[in-house]
Design goal:
This protein is of the alpha/beta class. Helix content is about 25%, strand content about 25%. It has 13 helices and 23 strands. The strands form 5 sheets. Strands 2, 4, 5, 7, 8, 9, 10, 11, 12 and 13 form a 10-stranded mixed beta sheet that branches. It has a 4-stranded antiparallel beta sheet with strand order 14-15-20-19, with no helix packed on it. It is globular, with a radius of gyration of 25 Å.
Length: about 550
């Protein structure tokens, strides 16, 4: 039986879109079954430089245009026997998907470097498409999607572009001499499980806990009841958030406990149900699937904060996400570049030491999953704020990593983050060796973060040694003490009077604390521990302030 569908081209195609150079270009949409669809790419509106055709099946069509080199001022015409759609001002260059949560979403207009960028930049070779942020597929979803389109620097909404995505693309465009397009697919406060399919989560007995937690929350409620429940929450939370923002404007140092005493308990992220954007698989269905399989060069990704309650599962969760996206795009070697979490802790929270576990999992992914790149962000976090407002340095480090991983342009010291390699225990000391440290390491005091760390620990009735270096040693009892350190070229020697026979060492093993070791090129040492302790394989807790996860 024939399926009757309206002829469309997926909304990720529009005027000003960027198509990936030197790879088969996937074009797709809907049409009636057996309808023939032809797509052709033209240069200057005249010369056809690539074309192909497909026949629609089950209401959808998809074809691949033969690869072309970088171009400007191209047009794409997609037609059937009776209809034709033409998109103009197309660039053929580089396309990257910017995924993750709020620190990838963080807007150019709100970052520290944004104002200067708007004042000095005239027309950078960067374009942006934002996959719409609606997490429930009703009629309004599709009406809103029809209004989405690619944007150029002349767009009035450029201030809402991802700051990391923009600076990443700008640096690549300058180096490669082509237009770079960013597809924004991110949402503040989201777990990696929101960006994966149900089938992926179900196939792992432990990762499926994300689904079972969600299913228990929805149990016994119809979809209508769930939607009504979430709509009521949104009305409440919108007003609550306005009042919360007003309190922080009046007193930026107000304690969270006092905020909730005045306003009532924060209910973010709301009831976990079929309309909640933070539900497992929700944004995979409502965002990722809407732009699949638009031809890409690769992915940049900044996420992990919202999985800190299950940190020991993060390696498997993150690895599965990478494999899922690569499989969906039919290329198991697509470059996947990501940010290792920086230092962060709200001043009134206990140090759950869950972020070190997330960072450890991220480094393990970097070491074990091919064609990945990791940017160590330690030193780029902000005290008492989960959203570092300086985004340019981080984004440009991502761009340098892309040049090396995706474009095979060696960057030498610029991407060589020191990483722990091995440890040798002596009678009363431990010697640590590091990869990417042939040029030498530098130890520097970090009085500012040390003071913050000391203040946060004091709130928990804990003390921090005056000369704390970020390194700690433990003996066979696994009780850690602050260690003194001596840096000698590419190795570090640790000692602690409380540990005469050191067996374990760690560095930066806190959510927020001093950042003291760098390569001579200024890149931070990735946090580490010399041994994994079985007793730490437990769930932990989120930070207390959850609504600030959103932007």
């Amino acid at each position: 039986m024939s399926v009757k569908n309206k002829f469309t081209v997926a909304r990720v195609f529009s005027d000003h879109c960027v198509l990936q150079r030197e790879k088969p270009i996937c074009v797709f949409g809907t049409a009636s079954d057996e309808e023939e669809v032809r797509a052709a790419l033209f240069l200057d509106g005249k010369k056809c430089i690539s074309e192909n055709l497909a026949v629609a099946k089950e209401g959808r069509w998809q074809l691949y245009l033969p690869p072309v080199k970088a171009q400007e001022n191209a047009s794409l015409t997609v037609s059937t026997k009776n209809e034709s759609i033409t998109f103009k001002d197309i660039s053929v260059g580089e396309v990257w998907l910017a995924g993750g949560q709020s620190n990838m979403e963080f807007e150019l207009g709100n970052c520290t470097e944004g104002t200067a960028e708007f004042e000095k930049e005239k027309s950078p070779r960067v374009r942006f498409y934002y996959t719409q942020k609606i997490a429930w597929m009703d009629e309004a979803f599709f009406e809103a999607e029809d209004k989405t389109s690619w944007e150029t620097w002349e767009s009035r909404t450029r201030n809402a572009w991802s700051a990391v995505g923009y600076f990443f693309a700008k640096r690549l465009a300058k180096k490669l001499g082509v237009t770079v397009g960013i597809i924004g697919c991110n949402w503040g406060g989201t777990s990696a499980s929101a960006w994966m399919s149900k089938e992926r989560l179900e196939r792992d007995s432990e990762l499926s806990s994300y689904l079972t937690d969600y299913q228990k929350a929805c149990s016994g409620k119809t979809k209508e009841e769930q939607c009504a429940e979430f709509d009521a929450y949104q009305t409440y939370h919108t007003e609550w958030q306005k009042k919360c923002d007003a309190l922080y404007r009046e007193n930026p140092k107000i304690e969270w406990a006092e905020v909730e005493r005045i306003l009532g308990k924060c209910q973010w992220p709301g009831p976990m149900n079929c309309k909640n954007p933070y539900r497992p698989t929700g944004l995979y269905e409502c965002m990722i699937s809407r732009i699949l399989p638009y031809t890409l060069k690769g992915f940049i990704y900044y996420q992990g904060e919202s999985d800190d309650h299950k940190p020991t599962l993060y390696y498997r969760l993150f690895r599965e996400l990478i494999d899922q996206w690569r499989s969906d795009w039919h290329d198991d070697s697509l470059p996947f570049l990501f940010v290792q979490l920086p230092e962060h802790r709200y001043r009134q929270d206990r140090d759950f030491k869950n972020w070190p576990l997330i960072r450890e999992a991220q480094e393990k992914v970097f070491k074990t999953v091919k064609n990945t790149g990791m940017v160590v962000a330690l030193g780029l976090g902000e005290y008492d704020d989960i959203h570092p407002k300086h985004k340019k340095v981080l984004a440009e480090r991502l761009a340098l990593t892309a040049l090396e991983v995706a474009y095979k342009i060696p960057q030498g010291k610029k991407t060589a983050y020191p990483i722990f390699s091995k440890a040798i225990s002596k009678a009363n000391s431990m010697i640590l060796y590091f990869a990417n440290a042939d040029w030498g390491l530098i130890f520097t005091k970090d009085e500012m973060r040390l003071e913050h760390y000391r203040d946060m620990q004091k709130r928990q009735n804990l003390s921090v040694p005056q000369n704390f270096t970020g390194f700690e040693l433990a003996g066979s009892d696994k009780v850690f003490y602050a260690a003194e350190c001596t840096v000698e070229k590419n190795r570090i020697t640790l000692t602690a009077k409380e540990v005469p026979q050191p067996k374990y060492a760690r560095y930066g093993w806190y959510n927020y604390g001093p950042v003291t070791v760098f390569s001579k090129a200024g890149l931070p040492l990735s946090p580490f521990r010399t041994s994994v302790h079985d007793e730490e394989k437990t769930q932990t807790e989120h930070a207390a302030i959850q609504q600030i996860m959103e932007t």
